[in-house]
Amino acid sequence: MEKLLVHVCCCHCAAYSLKHFSQTYAVTAYWYNPNIGPSQEYLARKQAMQVYANIDGIDLVNSQNPDFESFLKWQKEAVNRCAFCFYIRLKQTAEYAKNNGFTAFSTSLLISPHQKHELLKEIGDQIALEEGVNFIYEDLRRHYSQSRTITKPLALYVQRYCGCLLSEKEAESDPLRHDLPESLAKYESNIRW
Length: 193
What we know:
Blueprint lengths: L2 E6 L2 H12 L3 E6 L7 H18 L3 E3 L5 H10 L3 H19 L4 E4 L9 H15 L2 E2 L8 H8 L13 H8 L9 H6 L6
Parallel strand pairs: 1-2, 1-4, 2-3, 4-5
Helix pairs in contact: 1-2, 1-6, 4-5
């Protein structure tokens, strides 16, 4: 069976994505998210992903991140912050895949209806050419609620924004975010970015 390394951004996006890809590939999850800040947020998401991986028996590789301040400096210099963020995370994933016997890489970002899929695909394909390892793109957005259904009973941490501090500010200013009933807000983060 072909080995696939799947970059994971949070347990809620990863749950269905990993199950889906496991039907075709030998899957390993890969945590590399230097974009997530502040540190409490990063640790909450990473811990939730580790708990979910343990519960579901998923192999999870935790990669060393550059410090968050370095990421902020790099991001500030980027023309397109989302493109930069996708590129840095997928590039690291592809490099790890190539150097550790994986034939392909992908990302759990592909399940989020809030992500820029055309940009993700373009960047993934570009990195695949650069690194010589296949990028697996599948539009999993229609399964987003299924992923949330998997993780909801586990009461794991739910993030309220994409990851970077700019996306946190955008989420805070989104009036829809404040209109969520408490029961829904607990499980269904209204992420806007």
